[in-house]
Write a sequence for this structure.
């Protein structure tokens, strides 16, 4: 008996010592022990399907008592996950979901979720590199979020309408394949507030904080962070860039690349009215009204019966169905008011708060835009760049692509974006000042062709279940 008790006691002391060591190591990674204190739940075995977020409230929508007193970005919970392309092709990478505390536009504490990925292979010498990838979720339901759509055995995006996850996984694997850690925030928040830019920016910055402090990622103190996003993902990326100095100035962000930029939501409504993108823009109006109750009250008071029916039918849909339902609709005609409804005080005030360009990012920016963009018009992006470049300390490279449109540039602009990001993460200076370049197509730049080849190589590696990031395929 005595020997058994002593053995258990000794084993307990050893476990305690190990736990303390891990806590210290985890804290030393970035000056905190918070991450080490958060237990990591095991992944579900395949083929057990993950619960959709609406039925997984313990992780996605925990009681406020679990996060109200935490600091922005502080971890609430974590769990391992298995990721897959098209829900079935496994991605050979270490991955977790983290939930963390963030802040909405009213300054209230909210829960948020992100997916974090760690490349395979030994730790690379030099600074740690983390890319925050903001997905073009463009939806109004939690089951459309990337944290769910990227999981193995989730309902395929071809069925749910999360078409963004189907093609963005090809880009995400290239980031991990380059040897970079990646964090993918569900930047629309717990209410799926699509197009609510300041909210998305805060959730993105807090996701970087959470990834930084998540011990299993093993990020070092000399961390370098980049941000990337296109279209709806550029809403989060652009706002995170503008809010960085005010909201999270301690984050070592070295650059942000954004394309298809929704710089001015009001101008997007003007362009989409009675045009092909009206269904998608209506989804954005729904999303914004969830974060700005005054706009929701305005809509409930002034929408005609068709407008109320359309918004109700689009309330729980993902990107594909949002875009397909109600194209070429007279958006402004859904409001029972004379004149332009966007000119009334409430929508003018709310949409004015969503216009980018108030704060100039204090790190280099790559902005790329299709000149004939039929969703996010080029005019407001020109205006945004001019606003940034009025500051003599701004560093902006602006590329206008004249052969592409909104959807095709999402693909063609990725390789130039990852090449630009590689230089920032490698510590190469972008230089102070602004340059504007007009190109036929960004894909015709020979400097980016290697990145296109590696995009193909990383996805072939995915298809045959090779480890991503071991060895790294640099762009």
């Amino acid at each position: 008996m005595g020997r058994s008790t002593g053995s258990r006691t000794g084993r307990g002391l050893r476990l305690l010592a190990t736990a303390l060591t891990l806590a210290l190591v985890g804290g030393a990674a970035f000056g905190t022990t918070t991450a080490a204190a958060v237990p990591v739940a095991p992944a579900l075995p395949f083929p057990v399907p993950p619960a959709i977020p609406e039925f997984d409230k313990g992780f996605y929508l925990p009681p406020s008592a679990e996060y109200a007193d935490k600091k922005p970005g502080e971890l609430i919970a974590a769990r391992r996950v298995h990721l897959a392309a098209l829900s079935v092709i496994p991605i050979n990478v270490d991955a977790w979901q983290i939930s963390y505390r963030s802040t909405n536009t009213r300054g209230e504490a909210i829960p948020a979720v992100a997916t974090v990925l760690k490349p395979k292979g030994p730790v690379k010498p030099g600074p740690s590199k983390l890319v925050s990838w903001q997905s073009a979720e463009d939806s109004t339901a939690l089951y459309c979020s990337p944290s769910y759509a990227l999981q193995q055995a989730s309902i395929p995006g071809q069925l749910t309408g999360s078409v963004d996850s189907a093609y963005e996984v090809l880009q995400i694997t290239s980031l991990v394949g380059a040897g970079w850690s990646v964090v993918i925030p569900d930047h629309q928040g717990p209410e799926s507030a699509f197009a609510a830019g300041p909210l998305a920016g805060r959730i993105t910055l807090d996701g970087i904080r959470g990834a930084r402090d998540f011990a299993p990622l093993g990020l070092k103190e000399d961390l370098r962070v980049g941000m990337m996003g296109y279209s709806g993902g550029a809403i989060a990326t652009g706002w995170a860039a503008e809010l960085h100095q005010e909201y999270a100035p301690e984050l070592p962000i070295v650059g942000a690349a954004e394309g298809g930029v929704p710089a001015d939501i009001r101008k997007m409504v003007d362009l989409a009215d009675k045009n092909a993108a009206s269904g998608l823009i209506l989804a954005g109006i729904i999303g914004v009204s969830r974060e700005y109750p005054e706009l929701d009250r305005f809509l409930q008071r002034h929408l005609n019966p068709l407008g109320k029916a359309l918004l109700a039918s689009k309330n729980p849909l993902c990107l594909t169905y949002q875009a397909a339902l109600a194209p070429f609709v007279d958006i402004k005609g859904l409001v029972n008011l004379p004149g332009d409804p966007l000119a009334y005080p409430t929508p003018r005030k709310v949409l004015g708060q969503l216009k980018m360009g108030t704060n100039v990012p204090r790190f280099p920016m790559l902005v790329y835009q299709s000149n004939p963009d039929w969703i996010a018009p080029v005019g407001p992006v020109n205006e945004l760049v001019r606003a940034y470049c009025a500051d003599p300390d701004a560093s902006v490279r602006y590329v206008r692509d004249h052969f592409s449109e909104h959807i095709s540039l999402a693909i063609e602009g990725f390789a130039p974006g990852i090449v630009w990001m590689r230089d920032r993460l490698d510590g190469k200076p972008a230089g102070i000042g602004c340059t504007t370049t007009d190109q036929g197509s960004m894909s015709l730049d020979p400097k980016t062709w290697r990145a296109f080849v590696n995009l193909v190589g990383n996805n072939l590696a995915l298809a045959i279940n090779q480890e991503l990031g071991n060895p790294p395929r640099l762009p």
User: Anything to note?
Assistant: The radius of gyration is 22 Å. Confidence is low (pLDDT under 50) at residues 1-36.
